[in-house]
Amino acid sequence: MSTEHTAIAPVSLTQGAIKELHKLKDQQEISDDFGLRVGVEGGGCSGMSYILGFDQKKEGDNEYEIEGIRIFMNKAHGLYLAGMEIDFKSGLDARGFTFNNPNATSTCGCGSSFSA
User: Fold this and answer.
1) Which of 2, 3, 40, 55 is 20 to 30 A from 110 in CA distance terms?
2) What is the tens place of the pLDDT at every residue in 11-55?
C-alpha cells in the first residue's frame, strides 16, 4: 500500500485545534502509527455526523499532514469535507472540537451533524 501525501489537505485546523491535538496525542501516548481520522458517517439529527479521532491508516485513505499531525481521510469523504475548518473551543459556554463546514446546507443545534 503506497503512502499518498497531498500538498494541501482539504480540511484545515486552527491553531487551537492543533495545540489540543498535540496535547491529546502526548497525554494518551498515541504512537506515530496513528493519525487523526476525519470523515463522515450516516446518522445524526441532520443526516450525517462527523468522525474525528485517532486511528490507523486504512485502505482507501488519503493522507495529509498539518503541522506535524497526520490526517487520514477516506477518499469518498472529501466531497463532504472540502474546505472545512476544525477548531477547538475551550470557553465557558462551549468546550470541544467544532466543525465549520461550507458544504453543509443545514446543521443541527449541537454542530456535530449536518446535511449536504
Assistant:
1) 55
2) 999 999 999 999 999 999 999 999 999 998 877 666 778 899 999
